[in-house]
Structures are given as structure tokens and as C-alpha cells.
Amino acid sequence: MRGLFTTSLLAASLAGVVLAHPTENGGKRRKTLGFGPDRPHAVFKSSPYDITTSGFIPQSALTSPMDVARIFVDDLLRDQEARSYRVRKDSYTDETTGITHVYFRQLVDGVEVADADINVNVQDGMVLSYGDSFYKGPLLRLHDRSLVEGARWPHTEHCNSLTDELVTRYEELRRSRMANLQTPMGNTVEEMEEALSPIVDAHHSNCLYHDVPHTLAHKSKGDIEGALLQFMIAATPNDDLVNDMLARYDDYVSEMSAHPVNSFAPGESPYFMVNNVPDTVNPVKAKMAFVQIPTAEGDSTVLHPVYKFEVEMQDNWYEAAVSAEVPHRIISVVDWASDSPIPKPDEGRQTGTYNVFAWGVNDPSEGERSIQKEYFDALASPVGWHTIPYANDPTFDMTRAKPKGFYKNTTTTYGNNVFAQENWEGRNAYLDNYRPDAGSSLAFDYKYDPKETDRTDALEEAKGYINNTVTQLFYTCNLIHDFYYRYGFTEAAGNFQQYNFGRGGAENDGVIANAQDGSGYNNANFMTPPDGQNGRMRMYLWNTIIPYRDGDLEAGIVVHEFAHGLSTRLTGGPANSGCLGWGESGGMGEGWGDFIATSIRATANYSDYTMGAWAANREGGIRNYPYSTNETVNPSTYKTLDKPGYWGVHAIGEVWAEILFVVQQRLIAVHGFSDTLFPPLPDAEGNVPEGDFYRARSGKKPLVPKHGNTLSVQLVISAMKLQPCRPSFFDARDAIIAADEALTGGENFCTLWKGFSERGLGPDAKLEGSTPWGGGIRTNDHSLPTACAADKL
User: Fold this and answer.
1) SS3 content of the chain, % helix, strand, coil (to 5)
2) Do the annotations mark residue 590 as ligand-binding?
3) Is 339 annotated as a binding residue?
4) From 312, 507, 561, 584, active-site residue
5) How many Cα atoms sit within 13 Å of 532 on the Cβ side?
6) Single pTM value for the model
7) Residue 194 in marked binding region
8) How far is 694 from 372, CA to CA, in rounded Å?
9) Given CB 3.0 to 4.6 Å as the disulfide criterion, which of 126, 380, 658, 751 pairs with 485?
10) 312 is catalytic
11) Which CATH architecture has domain 43-136?
12) Where is the active site (predicted)?
């Protein structure tokens, strides 16, 4: 019945929402795919009881953390058939906390299980916490075709759930209007767009793409090219190209060529590079793998062979798993590009208005520009912001010219951490794009005085201030880099730098920061491939008012986007960018950005905060509510995720950010407020003074921020390293509490629980009937653990 009823309902009532995707004011909605299978057996354990009952005996503090982790995992897997694994090379010891993060990837018959990971967090011979999503079934299942055919295919389940959700929410809106004695006609579509847009967007991108006809689907002989072409038919937003690929299927397959690449590095799996792939900007990396698919019963998984692709397109950078067997089903997709939401601007609002808006001045409405000096942090950016080794400079050809020393000093917005430039054409190229050149003085001081013009001239008016715009973006991104570095986003943890100064991690991945990107309006996004590949930030103009407003000048948007790089690289390890793709995990990827942006602009005088208010020309910003401890201003709780309009990752992220905002205020009430989030600069020997920023310490214990706002930022960032791949709200909450245990001995246990419980995420909060894309029924819990019985909310 679903098909007939849904078809007529969506056609009659949702056509304008589902099918019409150009946005107001000329904005363009980027197509993005994102779904994957559930892993019902995945766990995150952070209590000593859970760890000791696994059979593990704590080791000597002198034992290598890697050996401790191996011993622990061998104990954990002792009763399982599939016990083979490799230790991923992105494992590292965090210099900020002294905790070693070790990442294990499961192998079956020598082939990786792409979504089977164990992350173990070790300190002084002890396992502090671990996450486990290894395949638990018998290897005999690998050859049982009936299990595969009866499995719950994630794409089908995802689209059925989206359709059911659309129908349910539409009916709720219709009944609500009738209860208010209003006709369901009139502006129903406008109301539906507001409440249903996240579900509609997901349905449009993931469920309305062209199915490959049966005759074509079976033409492939299980080859890489056939599987990849079928993914591109789903992924491309170009309908003309889709039709051509379907019409000339054999031609496109034959034009692609896959070449094996074998690595001499131990532990590296062989892979293929596929050339001439339609609608891509670089060759596609492909390799064989297994993924886990839930069985029909839903309580276990079965392994399925796939091709795992890394597909870089103009507006997307996908990690996709496609069935290696015919027909080639798309099993999972993660888009490494993360968007800001496109708002619906308020009508008729007019506001009149290196040298930059300084750190803490969120946008032009909050203060004036001032001359700011380059922040020379010898730990975070040892050679400053305008220096890069010749060997790591993508514009320098070592075969054509001899370098004039080791380092190259630049006079533009181009350095080791960030390449900032205009991108008016909205293309992938960036090396030769325009950048302001301040000459030997390095004084980036440019005019910014936008004038109101006719709409036809508004774009050129905005372009006239590109020197100021690129300078601001370069300044903000470098400060964010240095800020995150000091809280633990270092080279070993996967940060973004061209040269890593011999301190670990993969190199040649500075952030490509594009200002006034021509590929859209009223948005921003960040693409985060694994460590060793450049992050890419695209900032847009906002045509919500004339003169146009420039997203590069609203720090909160830039901070939010850079936070995608932070959370993606830290969660699940630097070499795994597939951990925050959808559902609660994807939502928290959005929420962390809002939380950090709000923390940066906060002052000692408490205030509520909006996001995107200046750029979007909306007093209330682009979120449903301002961030506030006042429940009448922001009523969000964990249960809010069940409401209409809270399906998409941005709405989920708002709830997570609000919970973190409340937790932070609880910590501030206990520990006070620091007027700066930046730790003290190191001395000439590289030692960091405690000053009034850190607690006094002895020996080699980690530095712990002493104030509530700085401590909360440290706990949130440290917790990203502890939590498992694809965490739930519960996992992320428990990881923050575990981070406090590691840093302070659990001093803030009850304070943290008070904050979480205040917004429904207490110890007995529940999620029943969960789906990997965020569905299910949630139950709030406002109680506290027994250990906090003497405390009250």
C-alpha cells in the first residue's frame, strides 16, 4: 500500500517541495548522498567494570601502549572466529593528554571490513575506554547466499523510512491545520517546506536518482568500472549526463580504465586508480573490501563484498561502498563535504553597514575592524602563517628550479596552514586564483565600505572588496588552526598542514580556503578527506540583502566549517573520514561547529547566541532557536529529535550544540570564566607556562584548563578522540565524561551529568527503534547517577 498511497500524496502535495530545488535569492542546493547500514552490535565502553569483565588485566605503566592495546583486543576477540586485524598507521599518542589512541581494522581472508573498527584508548597500562564494531558472526556466513539475499539493504530501508516520515509529518501538519479550523490549502506548501525540508532534501538526493535498468545492471561482470558507473549515475546532479550514461552505458564503461597500485609500505592494501570517470575532477581510488549488512532479524550482520570508492566531484567528495556482485547496489555513502544549511531569509530587512574583524568579533554588526598582528605561536605554527617549505609548496616545481633554501616566504595569503584565494568561477582549481599581495611589508590593509547598488551590480560591488575578504578568511582560518592545535588537534591527530615539522601525521593537507566561491549563494561547506589530503573550505556570498553580505566576514560560519575538519579527523582516527556521515553522528558533526563558534564569541557577561544572523539578514539566525540556558528561549531536549523538522543533520546538530552549551554553563558556574580561549604562548624552550590559564601541575601530567569555558572546549575536543566511529549522543556524552576522568580524575562527574540531564540526556535516557539515519523514539531522562544523589538539578 505504501507505493500507491505515497505516490499520489507526494505528487499532489509535495511536488513543489520535493522536486523544486532552486532556492530563494538565487541560492543553489547542493546534491549530496548519505546513508549506510546499521551496526546493531556496535558498542562504546568507558567504565572500568566493562573493561575488566572483558578478561583484560591491566598492564605495567612501562608497557608500550601499543602492546597494551594489542593484548586488550586479543582478549576481546578470543572467542570470535574473525580475529584477524591490522593496526592502522594513524594511531598516535596525544601529547595534550598523554592518552594513546590505537585504531584496529578487521580483516577477513586478508580483506578489510570497511566498517569494522576497534578504537582503544590507553594510558599508564590501563585501557580507559574502547569502541568496537567488529563483525561478530561465523565466517561460514561469508558464503551463505540466502543470508545476503535476505539482508536489510540500507538504501531501501533508508528510502522507505524517509517516505514514511514524509507521509507521517504531512498528515500531522494537515491535522494541525484542520484543528485550528484552517483550510489545508493556501500556503500549505510553504509550511511544509519549513517543517519537512530536511527529510525532503534527503529524499530528493538519496531516493529520486535514476535506477539503472535491469538490462544494464546485469551487463556488468562484477568489474570495477561497472560498479563505479552505476554509482556515478546516482551521484551526478547532471540529468543530461545521467541520460547519456544510460544511453551509452558500454561506451562509458570502456572509456574508464583501472590500473592497480601496489604499495611497498607494510600493511597497505593494494588498490586501483580509475581514470576517465564521468563528472569527477580527479581519478577515483578503488579497492576491495567487506561491509556489514544487518540480517533480516536485525540483531546481527552478514559480510558483503564491495568496491570502496573515493570519488572527488566538483561539489562533493564521496566515500562510497558499492556491491562487487551484480546487481551493483550502493551500500553506503559518506560525503566528505559538509554544508551549512541554506536559510529562508526574512523579507524586507535593511541594515546599513588587514585590517580585519578581530578574533571574538563575530561579524560587522558586533564591532569595527582593527589592525591585528600575526599570532606567532611557536608550537602551533613554528614558522608563522606566510612561510612554507619549497618541497611542500604545490606551486613550486623542484624539477624546473632550485629552491633558495628550505623555506619559501610568501607575501600573499598563502602559507603552511592555509591557502586563501577568490574562487569566483566556482571551480576546483585554486593555485593560480587571485590573492592579495601585501609586498615585503606584509601589511594587508584594504578598504571595506560596500555600497547599496541595483541587484544587477551587487555581485561586482562585492567582488570589489575581495582583498579585504580573502585577508579576513586567511586570518580567521590561521587562528582557528592555532587554536585547535593548542587543544590537541596536532599533526599526529591529523591536523591540516603542508609540512609537519617531523611531528607525525600525514603532510601536504593544508586547508584550501575559497572566498566568494562562485558555485552558490547563502551557504558554506568543508570537505574533509583522510589525513594527507587537502581540506577544502568554500565560503559564499549571501544575497539576502543589498549590498550582498560576505560569509567570509562572519567568523561563526568559518569556525563552524573548520570544525567539520576537526571532528571528522579526530573521530575514528585521522585516516578514517567516514565516521560522521548521517543520523546522530552526522548531526553532532554540525553541533560541534556551533558550540565552538559560540564559545569563541562568548564573554564573561552571559548572553544567548544565534548562528548566521548577520549573513542571512535574520535577527533570529538560521537555527530554530538561539542557544540559551532559558528553556523558554530554547526548549530543546534529547526528545526534541523526534519532532517534525528534526530529521536532518543540521537540526540534530542544533540539539547537540544546545546540550553542550548548557553543559558549558554548568562548568562555568563552578570554575569561572576565562577572558581568552587561547593558552599562553610557549617560552623560548617551547615550555608552556601555566599562568592563570592552566591548573598547577606536577611531573608530566597533562595541562588542564582551569576555567569552565576553556575546560569545556578541552573536554569536547579530547572526547572526539575517545569516542568510536559513528557515535551516538550517548557515546559522545560518555566520551566527554571519560575525558574528564582522564584529565581531572573525574572531578566534574556530577557537574557534567547535571548539564546533560537538564536537557534530557540523563543516565536512563533511551532510544528505541533506532535507525542509522536518526529515526526512532526517544525518552528523556532528567535524573542523575546514584553517585550524585546529594546533588540536585
Assistant:
1) 35, 15, 50
2) yes
3) yes
4) 561
5) 10
6) 0.84
7) no
8) 25
9) 380
10) no
11) Roll (3.10)
12) 561
